[in-house]
Amino acid sequence: MYEYKQFADSVVARHGFEIRETAIWTDPRLFSIYFAGPDDQEPDGQAADGEIPPLWAAVDELLSGAIAMGEGVEYCHGLGTKLQARVVEEWGDALPLARWLKQALDPNGTLNPRKLGLT
């Protein structure tokens, strides 16, 4: 966790933000960060110039960094729809098995439809 905290400090500072709060949720591997700065009110999506806004660029780098360190990006709710783009990156070779299990157990797709990147 300390390695990731150091990584997060550098990413957040490089993008012009500051970490306001960190938390460990019952286990040192369950770590969260709250950061903010002058651009923390940016809307979702693209900036006017087509670039990714600094807030979302920092979030993307933090998520990719966690996965690169062998960690996950969501420990409580699962990847869901918000983080679905990370399913291949996070699950890697386990994704085909998860998709097979989902199809075997829920062939009609009624349980959490369009979630987990398993469709």
What does this molecule look like?
This protein has 119 residues and is an alpha+beta fold. The chain has 2 domains: 2-76, no CATH class; 78-119. Helix content is 37%, strand content 11%. The protein contains 4 helices and 2 strands, in the order αββααα. A two-stranded antiparallel ribbon has the order 1-2. α1 runs antiparallel to α2 (54-68). The mean pLDDT is 80.
Summarize the model shown:
This protein has 119 residues and is α+β, with helices and mostly antiparallel strands. It has helices at 2-14, 54-68, 87-91, 95-105; strands spanning 18-24, 31-36.
Spatial extent as radius of gyration:
16 Å
Strand residue content: 5-15%
Question: What can be said about the biggest beta sheet?
Answer: 2 strands, antiparallel
How are strands sequenced across the largest beta sheet?
1-2
Q: Identify the overall geometry.
A: globular
Total number of β-strand segments? 2
Question: How many domains would you count in the coordinates?
Answer: 2
In which range does the helix fraction lie? 25-40%
Number of helices: 4
The SSE string, one letter per element, is HEEHHH
Distance between the termini: 32 Å
Low-pLDDT segments: none
Mean model confidence by pLDDT: 80
- Computed structural class: alpha+beta
